[in-house]
Fold:
Amino acid sequence: MTKKLSTATLVLLLAVSSLYAGKGKIRVASDHQGAYVYVDGKKKAMTGEGFSSILLEEGEYTIKVVKSKNKYMGYLAEKKVFVGEDTSVKLSFKLKLTALNFNVISDKYFGSKIAGGQFVSVVKTKDGGFIVSGFTDRPNKSYDAWVIKFDKESNKIWEKTFGGKNSDKLNSVILVKNGEFVFAGLTQDKLNHNVGWIVKIDDDGNKIWDKTFKAKNYAELKSIVETKDGGFIAVGNTSSKSLGQDDAWILSLDKEGNKLWDKILGNKKYEGLETVIQTNDENFLVAGYLTPKGTRKQDAWFLKLDKSGKKIWSNSFGGKNSENIHSMIQLEDKSIVAVGYSNSLAYIVKLDQSGNKLWENSFKSHFQLYSIIKTEDKGFMVVGRTFSNTVGQSDISILKLDRNGNKVWDKIWGGKGSDVLHQVIPANNEVFLGVGYSTSMSEGQYNGYIMQFFESK
Structure:
């Protein structure tokens, strides 16, 4: 005997059939239970022991599965999938630990197939924008010094190149007390010898003065700082009056760029300086690398000088392979935190005010750190490059560290080419701004690169 369905049951079945008509289904599972499943950014389900089912209209969707570990880190994976009418798609996700709270606001490339270039340094301007410096390529394979002013949204306001017939490069830029800008780098003389170069411009990019500092064979300035009396200290390397193959160079200038004194330091091998700061006792700390006697490798090197260039203390640190320091800052307690590389790993070290090592750390997934700044939570933001597990030839390294140099989160960012950030600064409203170069967008051509990013709170 056939049992008849009630009218209410028939109405319910018709309603359910109408609801599901024309839809497909995805079934999602992951290796982490309790992870949220997002469909085009909207939370739809949570993973369990088996598959979680979600009904969707026909179309293409981005499926993201996320499980938080802490404030900054979490496990993440995502896939794109097409869902057809009356189909069922099974998706299995293997989640990877990553930075969840890294958000890129914008990234922009500057250059062309005829003239690309690299950004090396950046400084914030008084109007909330920023100025970047570096060098731009020429068709004859030499390069010009390159300066661009941007507004706070990374829109170009003006662009200038400086230099002569040979190669010119700007490695460091600072904003001085009167609102003008001073750069340090290198230019080439008529004999194609590299010489140290200091350039001063106004807020519109007009050159006020420039000075060159010659050496017998080679000279380059890597970093410059304004002193409290309005003068400047610049550092780099040179082979002039060479004690070895490459020597550390310290140059003291008055406010007009005239040389007051200089120091050349080294032994019979390679020494160089990458960064300089004026300490809160109005002396100077310089850092870079030196070659210990009887070895072929370089050690990280710190040297403190008084206003006249007299040594207060010197200290170096090294392991089995080479080390170098690229950037450093002084903290409120007078200690120093510096970054670079050690044994082919990204490296951070903290010193007390007398140069004694307090702690150090290195990071296996990253190769070299070029810049460090303090963050509001008393930690650090550092940037550089890596060759480990890279998408392209080299990729950008971004690390958030706590006050003890431990990794909070990290991010590797890049395309199919070479991508590097040389410097990071605080921009506006908890936004960070990094500058460097990329070849990922132009088939090997170098382009200046700007990235703005922030942490989600």
Summary: The longest strand covers residues 73-83.
